[in-house]
Design a protein that fits this description.
The chain has 1 helix and 12 strands; from the N terminus they run H-E-E-E-E-E-E-E-E-E-E-E-E. The protein is mainly beta.
Amino acid sequence: MSRLLTIITLALVLSSCRKNDTTMEPATTFTFIADGTAYEWNGAMSTNAVQGSVISKTIESGAPVYTLSAKGTGNFLRFQLQASKLSIRSYSKATTGPSDNYHDQSQIKFNQYYIIKTGDFAQVIITKIETLLATGDRYATGTFTTVMSSDVTATKVNITSGVFKGVRIIE
């Protein structure tokens, strides 16, 4: 009888959860291909000094900005998402001429790149936001792609197949 009561209680608890709630902290993964080379920077920045990812909210010029940041050994990526509240949608920016956008940037193979020249762009798509029931912490999952230019040389980096999962959102 007590086993049946436990099963019923568990079923009630799980069925009362919202669709995007979770009872376990998701594993954090961050993968992409840069100019044909695959990168995998898994882990949360808060628990890994060498590599990981996070989405953090700041205020710039009076407006809220979310920054998706990831780092691997000697490398990093950073995308700014202009939004008052991070939500499931596409965030895009493109450059049609010379720009001073040094907020969106990457360092791949020790070369730094930015969205600063004609044809440069970034697209980040948030496909899922989960809330951890125990703490209220939120985690994002999505995809990204970008083309960025060096501000020193004429080189560009083409980043494709970007996928991030379980990246903690710090507000």
